Amino acid sequence: MKQQKYKCLHKLIWICSIALLLLSFIPNLFPHYWFTDIFSNFKLQYVIASVFCLVIVLFLFRRKILASLLLMLSIGFNTFYIFPYYFNAEDESIKVEDRLKMVSINLLSSNTEVDLVQAYISKENPDLIVLMEFTPQWKRLLHKTISAYHFNHLEPRNDNFGIAILSKKPIEAKTDYFQLNQKPSIVSQLNFNNKPLTIIATHPVPPLGEHAFELRNKQMDYLIKNRSKFSDHLMVVGDFNNSSFSTYFQKLTENDLKDSRLGFGLLPTWPANISFLQTTLDHILVSENIQVLDRTVGENIGSDHLPISVEIGF
Description:
Distance between the termini: 67 Å
Number of strands: 12
Order of helices and strands: HHHHEHEHHEEEEEHEHEEEE
Shape: elongated
Helix content: 25-40%
Radius of gyration: 21 Å
Largest sheet: 6 strands, mixed
Strand order of the largest sheet: 3-4-2-1-12-11
């Protein structure tokens, strides 16, 4: 009986080891297919699973070398993408004259936990707020919060693509569809520390199917190709429906945009209620000339996404 159990475990670990290696590499080898791109989102989970399997191999397998090599290859490859988020902090010796705090919240259109949302905003007390899945109902529920932010631009919708920006500082904002579809983004401009700052709030469609995958990627590509239209100081904020590990996300950071997570950890946000599957769908990108002073993820506010907060200076 023990011998049979050992054989079953042996086969299971081999299957898992090969599967983890394939799941790790396939999204990078075939990035242009919507289905394989989904698997790029879970590199942290692949590392954890690979380490678990490697421990079993080292303690129970008689022939360890090949299985260990496969698992260590998976661990090393995925860690390569995770490592910079923990060891790439800003130079804290740089003095900052002024600070700007922003939060980004995917409300979830069906969420009714308005007290949790308001409590988070009150605790963070940000200068700017970006809201996604902003519906007419959420506009009513957050009336007091909206009133407290005298400068705002609201695009409530009955689907999951309403969006809003609220600001304590004077802003000029407009709705922009990026010549792609009928899903609104907001492009806003404010003066911060006597310099123009452009803030783009955007929420691409989830890539569930080839057409949606192409629309999401075109929205990302639009920002890259039209970078010169915006201020030298730029922030891009929202639920990108795209993790930090996706090839299409990494294209956004090839020039002068950087992930505000760098140096603060992965800080995953989705799904809010399933911690072992969480990945990084909610983002705040900043141009290289902006210093990220702090970056956090908030508590569960009833949405399927956790809210995020960033404090910047330049």
